[in-house]
Amino acid sequence: MKPKIILAAMILSGSTQLMAAPAPVSEAASSQTSVEKRLASLEKLMQTRNFLQVELQQQLNLLQDEVSQIRGVTEEQSYKLEKVLQRQRELYQEIENRVSQAYTQPAVAPATDYTQANDAQTYSTDLSENEAYERAVALIMKDKRYDQAIPEFQTFLTTYPNSVYVSNAHYWLGQLLTIKNTPVKAIEHFKVVVNEFPNSNKRPDAMLKLGTLLQEQGFAENAQKILSDLINQYPSTTAAKLATNRLSK
Q1: Which GO terms describe its biological process (predicted)?
Q2: What domain count does the chain have?
Q3: Closest Cα partner for 205 from 181, 182, 233?
Q4: Domain range holding 210?
Q5: Most CB within 10 Å of its CB: which of 121, 122, 199, 203?
């Protein structure tokens, strides 16, 4: 009996070994599947990150385009504003020169050279102030309503006592009052320009008109002093040349 038992035990032992042998192959397959899943997960994460980077770059490009457009609009508006301001300065100069030439006597023509050289000093950044001054000048230039222009300039001086146009307003009042044949009141306004605004671009013309009116009123000595000062202080202006001709006569 014992040999048979031993033989059976050997057969069973071999059979068990044969059944246990495939186990390492199954474990390797399972491990490989796990690695593939992890790789697939990593690839998916990389694709998502790349997609987000592309999207962020596109948004950044859009923002840059918008900033460029805004900068361009700002530069364009600044350029247009500067052109408007420049045109206003030119308009004021043109109006004043034409009014002086059209409504004053030849002997009291404006000192054009000096006025043009100093026009930048007589421009305000206050739009309401500019509109008020332009409206007063327009009554002379466009409407030829000289009587209405006088109170308009007087109101301007009351409303904007510190305006850069104060000397100009006094000058135009002197001009209008001269036309209205009220030389005494005209002299008062020209004196304001001459005595209180040494840097005014209207001062040479005001000195010429003041000297002329004083001479006509019989104040020859005062007139001669004003005209001589004009010639000495503004020798290259048209007003100085006219003053020289008046003194020689």
Answers
A1: FtsZ-dependent cytokinesis; protein trimerization
A2: 1
A3: 233
A4: 35-101+131-248
A5: 203
